[in-house]
Amino acid sequence: MIIKFYLSCIPCFFTQDEVMINHEIKIAFEEYDTLNELNKNDHTLCLEAVKALANSHSPYSKFKVGVAMRLLSGKIIYASNQENVAYPSGLCAERVALFHWGANHPDDPIESMAITAHTDEFPLLKPVTSCGSCLQVLAEYEKKQQQQIRVILYCQKGPIWVIKGIENQLPFLFFEDRLITQ
Ligand SMILES: [Zn+2]
C-alpha cells in the first residue's frame, strides 16, 4: 500500500495589518508498509544500507546509521556514522556518504540514497530522518548535480518513506545564488 502524505504548516492570521501575506509550504513523501512494495532498485538499496551498519563506529551513542547511495552509473557508495571521543569530531553517515561522493565521483550523479538505523537500546518503529546539517549538504550537491536526489528512509520495524528532492525535506534551506561568482 502506498500512502502519499502532504504536510503543510499552519498559517498564522493577522487581522490588524492588511499588508501581511500568509504563505503556505507543502511537502510530499510516499509511505510503504514493506520492502516488497518498493521497486527492485529501491528494495535492493535498502538492504545494502543495512549492510553498511556493520561499519558504524558508534561506541558512544550506540546508535548505528547506515547509508547506501546509488549513482547513475549503478555504482553503490556505502557509509555509516563515525563517532569520536571528542564528540564534534564525528560525522553522520549521510555526510560521510555525500562528502565521499563529492571527493571521488562528482561526475556520476546521485540517484537515490537509502538510510537506515539500528540500536539495541530501544526499538525503532518509524523512519529516522536526517539532521539539518546533512540536509544542507544534500541540498548543496543536489544543486551541483542539477538533479533531484531520492531519499529512502528504511526502518526495519516500521514504514518506509520515499522523499523526492530536498525541497520536500528542507524547504527553508540556505542557498544564496549571489554567492556564486562564476
Ligand atoms: Zn546528520
From TrEMBL:
InterPro entries tied to this protein: CMP_dCMP_dom, Cyd/dCyd_deaminase_Zn-bd, Cyt/Deoxycyt_deaminase, Cytidine_deaminase-like
Subunit structure comment from the entry: Homodimer.
Domain CMP/dCMP-type deaminase: 40-182
Lineage: Bacteria, Pseudomonadati, Bacteroidota, Sphingobacteriia, Sphingobacteriales
Domain of life: Bacteria
Family: Belongs to the cytidine and deoxycytidylate deaminase family.
Molecular function per GO: cytidine deaminase activity; zinc ion binding
GO BP annotation list: nucleobase-containing small molecule metabolic process; pyrimidine-containing compound metabolic process
Full protein name: Cytidine deaminase
PANTHER family per the UniProt record, alphabetical: CYTIDINE DEAMINASE
Gene3D superfamilies hit by this protein: Cytidine Deaminase, domain 2
